[in-house]
Amino acid sequence: MSPRQACLQCLQRDPPALFEAALWIAAEHDAQLQPARVLDELQGLQLQVSAGLPALPARELAQPLLRRLAELDYQEDDEGMTRPQHALLHKVLRNRRGQPLVLALIALELARRLDIPLQGVNFPGHFLLRVPGADHLLDPCGGRRLYTRDCRDLLHRQLGPNIELSAAHLQTADAPAMLQRLSRNLRLLHLQHDDALAALKDAERVLQLGPPTLVDHLARADVYQQLECPQGERYDLERALLFCEDEGLRLQLQQRLRGLESAAALH
């Protein structure tokens, strides 16, 4: 079974094996990774975390769990330029530096093992967490509480001051949505670091994990362009046209397709 097949199979379980699925995503980029071994080794971190938790009801332990992870030096990457290693789960576990989403995946798995209620929130630009029914969200990078005003300020920092906070920004993320977001992050990071073959793996996975978007098809078309694969590029441009409602962008896509057809005719 390939890492991709193993990842998708994890999502078929009830409940989905989110953490293991994320490890199989990492295994697509690291042939030496053995997810089963990482799952076993996580028991050590679980013991470290649980030993530092206060004697409180389970629903009050989400923030202490996140603070305990911060005490153990699990932090958001601080190198200035994020690298693929900051979105690969096994490397974040080893180096203790990662994107908010990957830190959240670690926290969610520990919470699951310790019977602490915790959910992911697909907030734009900075993945967040929530305790079901709570009036606040939690930052996976240290456990800070975010109320409505804090979420609005964070949204403005991520997307600009003209964006209004809405319920859509605060939706709970299920396992496929989290893995699709992780795959999009990896796709971008691999492209930024000139690894188009790795980015193609991520771009393909994005389209398998959930409903594709115009942006997802355009992103894979750009990867195919870098890899000089006009057939793949053409397919994704044609799919993108089906999603596109902006007339100006439609004209650009049609022009790009004509350019591919002209190049093919010359050969």
From TrEMBL:
Annotated transmembrane regions: none
InterPro entries, alphabetized: SirB1_N (IPR032698)
Domain Protein SirB1 N-terminal: 37-183
Domain of life: Bacteria
Span of the signal peptide: none
Family recorded in the similarity comment: Belongs to the UPF0162 family.
UniProt name for this protein: Protein SirB1 N-terminal domain-containing protein
Organism whose genome encodes this protein: Ectopseudomonas mendocina (strain ymp)
Source species taxonomy: Bacteria, Pseudomonadati, Pseudomonadota, Gammaproteobacteria, Pseudomonadales
